[in-house]
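Re: weekly structure request thread

Next one in the queue (311 aa):
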Amino acid sequence: MNDKTKAVTLIGVPLEEGSGRGGCAMGPAALRIAGIGSALGELGYRVTDAGDLRPTPATELGEHAHARNLPVVAAFTRAIEDRAYRAAAEGTLPVLLGGDHSLSMGSVSGMARRARELGRPLFVLWLDAHADFNTPSTSPSGNIHGMPVAFFCGKAEFAPILPAGRPFVDPHQVYQVGIRSVDDEERQAITANGVNVFDMRAIDEDGMGAIMRRIIADVSKVNGLLHVSLDVDFLDPDVAPGVGTTVPGGATFREAHLIMEMLHDSGLVSSLDLVELNPFLDDRGKSARVIVELAASLFGRRILDRPTRAA
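Done, posted below.
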């Protein structure tokens, strides 16, 4: 985002079929109840809520033995790709309210299409405990929410979900931060494809600020667009328990807040995913409120703007 980008489009994605359990479909409603729209509006943005996508399953694809619920996920991917692309083309910043992480198959693909029109490279900042670089042949579970990065990088064309000639993201332009749970074959794939991975050890050793400065510098020097994809499980479960794939040892709220402040200052962010929020597993809306706080930081809320809350 930059000073000229003061319009935001909220796109609800009640998708849970890409994950292994129910509950993520309630994520968009929880984020709205937690005040995502008003938080951005108070920061001076013109916020349009486009409602929730509810596509008809792509039954022509049929079921896939190693990619669960393919017709539903494929239909959402197509709808998300189109809606994210149109929101960006209209001059707004699309914010995808998830929904499980398979939604990024559509959001990143839509932004890649827009980036190609603009003649600018698209970079992806993947804030997650997981690399999500599996394919149906490597995934232990067959859950598609573990495959989106491989998909939008063109390494998982396991079904005709989107046109084969669409633009892909160069794996060297994917930056994964907070990683701490990777399958064996997936580890080999991210290494072979040159994905930039900053696991929790890298964060502990180098510091979040240094890592973010490197990422921002890489995007800035080629005038890139930056898509940010924030998974609730990026955060430590003590900070945000409302997710079905908790992994201990995640980022603190302060580390996540620093990322968002630095991203806002960079003016590079062109689109945002907020994913894997499962209100059924949350503690009285705690995770939804944390995600809204972080989103507000990304859009410019400062420490001095934060009201003190009663304990």
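The CA atoms of residues 112 and 167 lie 6 Å apart. The chain has one domain: 7-305.
Next request, please.
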